Amino acid sequence: MPEQCDPRPYDALLLLSFGGPEGPDDVVPFLENVTRGRGIPRERLKEVGQHYFLFGGVSPINAQNRELLDALRTDFAENGLDLPVYWGNRNWAPYLTDTLRTMVHDGHRRIAVLATSAYASYSGCRQYRENLADALAALQAEGLELPQVDKLRHYFNHPGFLRPMTDGVLASLAELPEEVRDGAHLAFTTHSIPTAAADTSGTPADHTRGGEGGAYVAQHLDAARVIADAVRAETGVDHPWRLVYQSRSGAPHIPWLEPDICDHLEEAHAAGVPAVVMAPIGFVSDHMEVKYDLDTEATAKAAELGLPVARSATVGADPRFAAAVRDLLLERAAAERGGTPERCALGALGAGHDLCPVGCCPARTPRPAAAGADWRGPVAEASV
Fold this sequence. Notes:
Number of helices: 13
Oligomer: single chain
Order of helices and strands: EHHHHEHEHEHHEHHEHEHEH
Shape: globular
Structural class: alpha/beta
Strand order of the largest sheet: 2-1-3-4
Helix content: 40-55%
């Protein structure tokens, strides 16, 4: 087998995502899955679910994951990579545990995992690892032989992630009226998280205090800077930019990352900014938080202000992103075989770690998390 197409020791890839409802009857049960253990009343979940009901109770995320799944399989086949690709979700069908069970029954014992979250944070990385640990524990309880699962590194600065989004920003600038185009500001958006979670994101060496944001903010700023520099190189225009946030869902008294995108639009308009491109760099696909928080809520705010806006695309199933996943997989496979593969990364931060170290993106309550330096398996971790 040619070295550049050798996936060993891996015998399968798992696409691991968040999941979403696919009909009105799914909305509240889905939200119950997402919020399990938080004691949120069902009536409150119905209120939250109105965002989904505006779209017929269907989140775009599952359809977009099916498209990405097809893109990955196509890319693998076209490049001689003979490796099956499966898909499992944290919060809706196909559920992670069910998919892992199928993979075990299909004979897979060494599984690479791509999470549809590109950045370091508890909710974007360690929580996926906790879900993997829970799934493995469930399979162990069923008496199944457990596979080894390895989560692929963060890819926020991989060219196959950043270049499609750069093209999206360029396309959005071209959509704006010519008279405001060169003066447009770029608002790079991502999911707001509690400042305490942001400060403890990434490795212990990345952790900060006082709302500085740790690795989560640093990685987004690095990605935004790469895109802004590429846009300037392409257009010859230096568009001012800022990292802003969306989709806050926590209690009002808990500090979360700011500014919110709608607040930023108001500030930009008050400062005389002629137009804004909203670039959702924190998201892999145009799922509900992009469709509602940007395309619906933020766009309505811009219309109220009389501020021209355009929203750029996420990477979705772009062939370059599928190729990036192949690159990440083969890179990790070569490293597992003892090689020193080239690790593609743009920006100033370099390629991330393969194995999450102890203390990386910790939870408030310690829980077992697979695919990390402190993972010893479900039995050994049962008392953690």
